[in-house]
Write a structure and sequence with these properties.
The chain has about 160 residues and is of the alpha+beta class. It has a single domain, classed as Gcn5-related N-acetyltransferase (GNAT) (Aminopeptidase, 3-Layer(aba) Sandwich), CATH 3.40.630.30. Helix content is about 30%, strand content about 40%. It has 4 helices and 7 strands; from the N terminus they run βααβββαβαββ. The chain has a 7-stranded mixed sheet with strand order 1-2-3-4-5-7-6, sandwiched between helices. The longest helix has 15 residues. It is globular and about 40 Å long.
Length: about 160
Amino acid sequence: MNAVLQAPEAQFEPLTLSRLADVVHVEKLAYAHPWNEANFRDAIQAGYQAQVLTAAGEVLGYFVAMKGVDEVHLLNITVAPQYQGQGWARLMLEALAIWARGDGAQWLWLEVRVGNLRAMRVYERHGFRRVGQRKAYYPAGFGKREDAIVMSMRL
């Protein structure tokens, strides 16, 4: 008898203070230099587009994006480590693009660590192109900094 795996039914919900502890927990699991609670609180207070992707009450991932005049800047996108490689990042990027288009944006922008090749591949497959580099953009531990690749996608 063959078992059929069912993908969890996922849904988006706005990032609110009630979900903050869950998101900060995932952030700490996912990154060596995570955003802290204050970063997420500031994003919520500023009215940024901040969405949490959940299934059965569990956080699969989330993103935070800032709207500009005719563009959206993706500030943070994270898939919980145990759900990586299952297509959730692509789903969140598509949801972000749909929202951005609907809000009149013509471009999506982001920065990604120069060493995060896996994320760059996801972004490139989604239509982002490398357009520049920011020197010493990210903290890298031991007082060092890591460059960022700037990527954009026309909507």
